[in-house]
Amino acid sequence: MRKSIKYFSASAVLSILTPQLFAASAGEVIVKLGQASPLSGSIAHTGKDIESGAKLAVEDLNASGLVIAGKKVKFELISEDDQADPKIATQVAQRLVDAKVAAVIGHTGSGTSIPASRLYSDAGIPQISPSATNPAYTQQGFKTTFRMIANDKQLGSVLGKYVVENLKVKRVAIIDDRTAYGQGLADEFEKSVKSSNGNIVRREYTTNAATDFTAILTSIKANKPDLIFFGGQDAQAGPIAKQMKLLGINAKLIGGDGMQTPELINLAGDAAEGVYASVTGSPREKMPGFSKFESKFKNRFKTEILVFSPYSYDAVHVIADAMKRANSTDNKKFLPFIGKTNLNGVTGNIQFDSIGDPKRGFVTIYQVKNGKWTVVFAKS
């Protein structure tokens, strides 16, 4: 009886393994892609938006029956939660390196993308961030770093000129969250305001974990600003807008793409009305593939697109396109082809310059009107 049980168990195992063995004999190759973003914490909604874009791209590619070097390619996405923490980001990066991923989509913020980038560079693994904007990310001399969006210098320059020339503000206060993203964007914004003959009347600092900004805002109120710029994420920008209203501060509030989410409106409530935020990229209605992407995204995930999922979707396709042109899934062979990308994606035409920045960086400014983000300015 025991022998027959053992024999049956072995047969059962063989029957389970047979499809995999057949797939291997048929020439299928498994390609692992890494995805790193905050999947927990105060900006988990942003990280999950990015993860969802990458997931959808992998599913679409697998459904297309992609063949490279005579073998059918099946992509597998390995998602890691970096918790928006630079130290955890390096641990995540090491895990992805150890998993021998072919490429990485991420990280979300500059503060996590920059420290992780060294590990990917040392391992020769391409890294494409759909959302990191600090110029330093692609200025390290690494051949493995790319980004899908405009950097803080481009963003800050457009924003600074816009508030002085278009909104006609004269007195500007700045708050930043001391992260690589928030501080970097605030620095560039300040330079642009000054070069446009605007006046910075106060600059304050907070953290990306703070929720009470009463003391900072009360101090700023005494300087009578026309506008307050916030360098940081929606998790802090929402409470700032709410507390500005409670304190009777009538200044306009503006920030970067970390603020331009439905979550800010949820957090700020009525105080969100009139808030401005810039986004890297052209307006969604002008993105050539956005309508089709939005339909698929909503059908698959039963939720609204936030900001960066179209870019993470395109980033995965950039990797697949480089593999096709190199006729190889080996990152040593397809890495040089990423820099030569000329791909029409959901977000538009994708090309990179010599350091991995997009050749054409769009900036769009939105304002909350009647409870919805509305385009008020766009520049390429």
Taken in chain order, the helices and strands follow as HEHEEHEHEEHEHEHEHEHEHHHEEEE
Global mean pLDDT: 92
Question: Radius of gyration, Cα only, in angstroms?
Answer: 23 Å
Major beta-sheet overview: 7 strands, mixed
Number of helical elements? 12
Query: Which percent band covers the strand fraction?
Result: 15-25%
| Poorly predicted spans | 1-25
Protein name: Branched-chain amino acid ABC transporter substrate-binding protein
Keywords: Amino-acid transport, Signal, Transport
Signal peptide: 1-23
InterPro entries: Leu-bd (IPR028081), Leu_Ile_Val-bd (IPR000709), Peripla_BP_I (IPR028082)
Topology record:
Blueprint: H1 2-25, E1 28-37, H2 44-63, E2 67-68, E3 71-81, H3 86-98, E4 103-106, H4 110-123, E5 127-129, E6 145-147, H5 152-166, E7 171-176, H6 180-195, E8 199-205, H7 214-221, E9 227-231, H8 234-246, E10 252-255, H9 262-268, E11 276-280, H10 290-301, H11 309-326, H12 331-338, E12 343-345, E13 348-350, E14 363-369, E15 372-379
Parallel strand pairs: 1-3, 1-4, 4-5, 5-6, 7-8, 7-9, 9-10, 10-11
Antiparallel strand pairs: 2-3, 11-14, 12-13, 14-15
Helix pairs in contact: 2-11, 3-4, 5-6, 8-9, 11-12
